[in-house]
Amino acid sequence: MEKRDLHISKREVKPSEGGERNSQGGRPHCSFITIKNYKYELKNFALSSCNCTCNGAKHFARRIAFMEKGKGSVDKELNRGRQEVSLSAFSILYSEMVQYCLYKSKRGYRIEDCIHEMGLRVGYKLSEYLSYRNKTKRSINILSILTFISKHVWKYLFQHSSDLLKSQDNIYEYMICDKNMILNKYINVPKDYGNINCASFAAGIVEGFLCSSEFQAEVTAHTVSESDTESNTTIFIKFYPEVVEREGAH
């Protein structure tokens, strides 16, 4: 088949005998796209003057105008103010997440593992987002990245910082202590389910953040009771031996 250049421009449609309506009872349609050398171009883009009621044409017109402004979803800036969510709304959402994990536990899954896996996905994405948003340099040692998590990441998620502790007996172990963990604040675990800690979601976030930054570790959540009425949530972090050996080599 011989290739030819196509040129479709706005055409004039004469009104029918019944007035300005065409033979089908509608208003005249028009073409407003130029196809030339197999590339789509916009030509004489003025729907207001062509008296056109084609829904597809109007939608295309709005889409092109929106794209020309450069405000597509890809062009939006990430470095914006943080959008806060009310504690009540988050509590309802998180309780539904726990209920979902409870449903999965009846099919052979552990509740804490399910909650931990959800946090793991958040941690991977949060690492990329905060690194780009804060324009920070990549952490190259364990202490710097744990300090960043306990201060900046915790404040971004829970609006307060936490305490970072290092084990005196094991060089692979660190702990992040939070005295006001909101993940456990409105969760009532039945006694027949044992010692389930719903802060495993935060442990998953920390593990995902560390693994995304090439600091492989196992992270778990534990509750430490200080008195009958007060308890702390401890995020226990145990790094892989190769991570500690890599840092010692530098």
Topology (elements, then pairings):
Elements: E1 33-36, E2 39-42, H1 47-50, H2 55-68, H3 87-105, H4 111-134, H5 142-158, E3 163-166, E4 173-178, H6 200-212, E5 217-225, E6 231-239, H7 241-249
Antiparallel strand pairs: 1-2, 3-4, 4-6, 5-6
Tell me what you see in this structure.
This protein is α+β, with helices and mostly antiparallel strands and 250 residues long. The chain has 2 domains: 1-73, no CATH class; 87-249, Trafficking protein particle complex subunit 3 (Muramoyl-pentapeptide Carboxypeptidase, domain 2), CATH 3.30.1380. It contains 7 helices and 6 strands; from the N terminus they run ββαααααββαββα. It has helices at 47-50, 55-68, 87-105, 111-134, 142-158, 200-212, 241-249, and strands at 33-36, 39-42, 163-166, 173-178, 217-225, 231-239. β1 and β2 form a beta hairpin. α3 packs across α4 (111-134) and α4 crosses α6 (200-212). It is globular, with a radius of gyration of 29 Å. It starts with 32 loop residues before the first strand and ends with a helix. Residues 1-24 and 26-52 have low confidence and may be disordered.
Instruction: State the secondary-structure class.
Output: alpha+beta
CATH topology of the largest domain: Muramoyl-pentapeptide Carboxypeptidase, domain 2
Shape: globular
Distance between the termini: 67 Å
Report the top-level CATH class of the largest domain: Alpha Beta
Instruction: Provide the domain count.
Output: 2
What percent of residues are in strands? 5-15%
InterPro entries: NO_sig/Golgi_transp_ligand-bd, TRAPP-I_su5, TRAPP_component
Family: Belongs to the TRAPP small subunits family. BET3 subfamily.
Subcellular location: Endoplasmic reticulum; Golgi apparatus
Protein name: Trafficking protein particle complex subunit 5, putative (TRAPPC5)
